[in-house]
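Much of what follows relies on a compact textual record of a protein's fold. A complete example follows; check for yourself that the lines match position by position.
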Amino acid sequence: MLKISTITGTAALTGLMLLAGCGNLVASPRATAYTEIRGSAQSLEITLSPDRSDIVLSALSAGDALMTAELQHLGDLSYGVSGDEQRVITIDEAPVMNVTYTGPSMRWLVALDPSMPLTITTNVGSGDTTLPLETFIVNGLTANVGSGDVDISLPSGEAAIPVSINTGSGNVSLDTADGSQLSLETINLGSGNFRLDSGASASYTGSIAVESGDVALNLANDNSGALRVVIDSGDARISLPDGVALRVEVTIASGDINAGNRMQRVSGGETLTGNSGVWETAGFADAEQQFTVTLTIDSGDLTIE
């Protein structure tokens, strides 16, 4: 079936083909396009909820559009817009049951006005989430994924950005600009690795929890804040540059601690029931910018390098 539909002033070409096979239907993706004009909008809150498609975000160049979207999908879409100055957009795909799709990855290509203060929520059933937000004004970010990788870049700002990431299966990469301030309100991974690549002078608060996977904290000069990291099964690695005053409070039920030669043990040691202790860089107590990591591992090792 082939049809032309007009959505918010934009023509969208939509095709759907279903074939019987192996007890399920075999589907080809439909394509839908949306455009939202900026008008009098002063901020944008957007929620994107694809069922089986990747989300790829980009920044719009000059023009009068607040958002453009080119979406490949199997299920029916619902599109909602409300508000005038505080614009709210929701795009939701209904799950399609008993349908097999074996083609290339479907994608939601969404471009937004980077000058607009942005609060973004993504809910992906199965697919990757790519959010290069380093040129945006980000007021808040939530990324939920059933199965798929998450790759996020965040800007600097005068206020802390609240960030929540929840995944069932997949790796998470978080890249922050120099001077970023993040409040990691909930970072929960079921199965997958978490990696933070920090910019200089960035600050962090909050927690990271991983059921099965590794955590890598790649710090940069003058990082500050306090993070709690909990790993059920997996290793933790902290990359420590010269310009970071670091304190690590660690408890490991089963595993080893390699704190390197730049950390000094303050307390603790290996016991019959595990390995624990507190390590600090020289001069930590007198440092103007301090970074503390409280780490709990059920099974795995800690390496500071």
In short: The chain is about 0% helix and 65% strand. The longest strand covers residues 181-191. The radius of gyration is 22 Å.
